[in-house]
Amino acid sequence: MTDDANDAVSLRGVTKRFGAVRAVDDLSLDIPAGQTVALLGPNGAGKSTTIGLLLGLLAPDSGTVRVLGGTPEAAIRSGRLAAMPQEGGLVPRTTVRELIGFVSGTYRAPLPLEEVLASAGLEGLAGRRMERLSGGQAQRVRFALALAGDPELMLLDEPTSALDVRARREFWESMRAFAARGRTILFSTHYLEEADEYADRVVVIDRGRIAADGTSREIKRLVALSTVSVTATGDTAPLERLPGVVSVEIRGERAHLRTRDADATVVALAAAGAVRDLEVVPTALEDAFLSLTGQAGRAAGLTEVDA
Ligand SMILES: Nc1ncnc2c1ncn2[C@@H]1O[C@H](COP(=O)(O)OP(=O)(O)OP(=O)(O)O)[C@@H](O)[C@H]1O
């Protein structure tokens, strides 16, 4: 790992404990300027804690946290770092234009109001009052407020968790425009699909440590993407050793083989004469993700990148 002063984010051996819980455990992560990075992990993985550390809301027990070459506090003070809250922050009875205009006025070098409205996809909603916005529209206003100071880095903790599918898509369209201007985005999410679609890079975090780090294509290649099912008779232990197989689950008469290479697994099953009622189904992305952070992932020999 290189030490690059141009990194937008640099965490070095960072640990944050809450009592006996190591919410972030010796984590090292560098994000070069211009990347859109998804921090992906199950509940309690340490995503919010990581973002809290980067915003200076939490102090690490050990290790160093650098944001845009300095401390999080300095980055926020200069307006170079912005965060978007999940909820709240919108003043009722004001219009979209009034609120964004007011907040813009508090920044030293704000973006022109019309540009903020356009970037957040709010042109048609500028005159609308806060209480009349849908969930997705309100979230775009929060995004606009974060955008107004023209930050270089945006940190988003589960920005779409309260949104439905359509609102989620609309939100990400706004985010894409921001990223296209060469800005850096780090967002946390539970959804592999979201990481897959919107991030240049996916960092999978599990129990405060990095479980995998790569493009979503690389991450998906690491995980078991198909399940081969057969009716199993006799000893099922050898199934575990077939090519591609990551884990085997026996339910009644059926053996479900989670595999990274369905073709190789099927060929090997055929050679063993064990193809009764054979079925191959793609694993849902969510399940694939669980296999990466759960037992199956460890069985597949995935190593912690930053151990
Ligand atoms: N203020 C706190 N006090 C005590 N424990 C905490 C605190 N904040 C976080 N934790 C614990 O630290 C661990 C990591 O929590 P964190 O909120 O960072 O995870 P997360 O990945 O953001 O989870 P989620 O997806 O559920 O938001 C969890 O075990 C959590 O219970």
Automatic annotation (TrEMBL):
This is ABC transporter ATP-binding protein. Keywords: Antibiotic resistance, ATP-binding, Nucleotide-binding, Transport. Residues 9-232 form the ABC transporter domain. Signal peptide: none annotated. It comes from the Bacteria. It is a peripheral membrane protein. GO terms for molecular function: ATP binding. Pfam families: ABC_tran, DrrA1-3_C. InterPro entries: AAA+_ATPase (IPR003593), ABC_transporter-like_ATP-bd (IPR003439), ABC_transporter-like_CS (IPR017871), ABC_transporter_ATP-binding (IPR050763), DrrA1/2-like_C (IPR025302), P-loop_NTPase (IPR027417). Its main location: membrane. It is found in: Cell membrane.
